[in-house]
């Protein structure tokens, strides 16, 4: 049974790894706000469990076993978020902190039943893919709104951050997953976008457009 601390490290690794399944110790330290000696100690422990491959002064590389362990933590978190929204009526802006607590429950049966009740969702309320019970993840082919061009019509599919502040920003503008967006104009100076949706027009900064993923 993994400890709460180990699970937090695994989840951080999951979110930080690049396309080569590698992450620097410095990045992991910053993500967790934990000092380097403690991070190095935990990484060495993970290497003993064959969750990572690690050599001094080189990036950490997640093994297949490590990826599965990390994916299963993320699965619990995202299923919990979906359950809170779909079955308990929470807003998508209010579920992250609760899921942070419930993801550490050590019962596969509990989360498998949650999955069943939800009819096996593929995405969480923020559009992020939910790993299956074996830790497998199908990454959707989404792109940032900031990479789109004028006159394109796209659909909001996901957000890159689930912070309460950002999601409330979207709520105030009646912007949710599944909304069709038409790019009316891109400002050359700062790449802000004039977007039409739901019978209204809004200007979004490049910072906002970077955080919206579309298909």
UniProtKB/TrEMBL annotation:
InterPro entries named in the record: DtxR_MntR_Metal-Reg (IPR050536), Fe-transptr_FeoA-like (IPR007167), Fe_dep_repressor (IPR001367), Fe_dep_repressor_sf (IPR036421), FeoA_core_dom (IPR038157), HTH_DTXR (IPR022687), Iron_dep_repressor (IPR022689), WH-like_DNA-bd_sf (IPR036388)
Q: According to the UniProt entry, where is the signal peptide?
A: none
- Name the SUPFAM superfamilies on file: Iron-dependent repressor protein, dimerization domain (SSF47979), Winged helix' DNA-binding domain (SSF46785)
Which SMART domains does the protein's record reference? HTH_DTXR
Transmembrane feature ranges: none
Per UniProt, the keywords (alphabetical) are: Activator, Cytoplasm, DNA-binding, Manganese, Repressor, Transcription, Transcription regulation
Ranges where the HTH dtxR-type domain occurs: 1-63
GO MF, one annotated term: DNA-binding transcription factor activity
Per the UniProt record, one Pfam family is Fe_dep_repr_C
Give the source's domain of life in one word.
Bacteria
Q: Name one GO cellular component term.
A: cytoplasm
Per UniProt, subcellular location reads as: Cytoplasm
- Family recorded in the similarity comment: Belongs to the DtxR/MntR family.
Q: Function, please?
A: In the presence of manganese, represses expression of mntH and mntS. Up-regulates expression of mntP.
Q: What does the annotation say about its assembly with partners? A: Homodimer.
Q: What is this protein called?
A: Transcriptional regulator MntR
Question: Which species is this UniProt entry from?
Answer: Epilithonimonas xixisoli
